[in-house]
Write a structure and sequence with these properties.
246 residues, mainly alpha, globular
Length: 246
Amino acid sequence: MKYILDRILPELRELMGAALRLYEAGKLTEALQELDQQLDRLEVLVTDADRREALRWNLLHTRLGIIAGFGTDMRSEMDAFLAELREPVSTAMGNAERESMLVRQLTIRDGMLAEPFTEQEFMTMLERIPPEACSIRFWSDVSLWAFRNGYAEPLQAAVEHALLNPAPAHEVTVWKRIHLMFGSVSGSLREAALLNYIDCVDNLAQLRELEVSIIERLRDRGQWSEAAESSLQNLRAQLQRTELAH
C-alpha cells in the first residue's frame, strides 16, 4: 500500500529539514521560527492543494513536538490544533490525513492531558479513516495509547494491518513493539518476544521510551522477567558506550 505519508515524505523532509536540524542542535526558538516561516509560505511552496493540506497537518504536528521541547504548558497550542483538526478541509487527501491526525492527537491528549479517549471512540473513528492514511506513525501512536489503557481491539487492528502490509526493513522494530504491546494486553506475550524486541532496540530514544512508557506496565502485569532485566542492562551499557565513542 502506498501511504499518504510516503507520497509526501520527500517534500515533508525538505520543508522540515532546517527546523529539525536547529531543534537537534538545541536551538528551539530558531527551530520554531523556521517551521513557522515554512507554514506561512506553504501555499507558494506547494501548489498542489491535496499535497499542501496533507503536508500542513504534518508540519503542525511537528510544530507541537518542537514546542514540547521548551518544557512549558502547551495546552493552548494543543487545543488550537485540535480545533483545526475537527474542521473539514477542501481536498480528499487533506481530509484523510486530517482524520488520521485527529485520532493521533486524541490518543496523545489521553496521556498528556488526562482526557479519556475510549476504545469505542477509536474504533468508530477508525472506520472513517482511509487505509492509506494509517501509516506506521499512526499505528505507533495508537499502539502506545492502547497499551497504556489495556485496549485489545485497537492493538488487534494494528497487528492485522501489519500482517496485510509487510513493513519495510527500517520499520520492523516498530512493528515488533506493536506485537509486544498486543501480546501484553491480550495476555499472550512470551519472554522470547520480549527479549527479541529488546535485542532490536538500537538507539537511546527507543531505550528511553521502553523504560518510561512500557516496562512499568509490563511489571504491573507480571510480564517482566529477570532475563529481560539482564538484557536491558546490557543494552543500556552498550548504547551508552556507543554514544561516548561518538
